[in-house]
Amino acid sequence: MSRLYDKLGALKAKDVVVIIDACFSGAGGRSLIAQGTRPLVNVRAAAPVSPRLSVLAAASGAEVAGTLPGQGHGLFTYYLLKGLQGEAGTGDRLTLEELQAYLKRTVVPAARRQNREQTPQLQSAQPGLRLY
Description:
The chain is α/β, with parallel strands linked by helices. The protein has helices spanning 2-9, 75-87, 96-113; strands at residues 16-20, 23-24, 40-41, 53-57, 121-123. The chain has a three-stranded mixed β-sheet, sandwiched between helices. A two-stranded parallel sheet has the order 2-3. The protein is globular, with a radius of gyration of 15 Å. The two termini are 27 Å apart.
């Protein structure tokens, strides 16, 4: 992850936002996962090194990311797309911070209804970064 963040941070872009619908856990050791959950990525989630790089991830390091039955993709992705389509913002603008707050309000209770914990994470030096 550190190498990926280094490469993304070196881009000549003004800002880079990385969105990851996967689990990051050092716990590992799982050979079977429950249906509807995303596999664990056995790495320590490195913090972005560039102040221009923001990372929005589906779950904390101790949690698994799950799917939303009937939607064909992850629970996090489902609400991320709804948030980007206007449910998270106020009018014609949306910041990373507003999107993160919306994801916590929607993903956390939806995961609990599936009997598990999933808390979207934001790592950013610019939480007020305007997405649109």
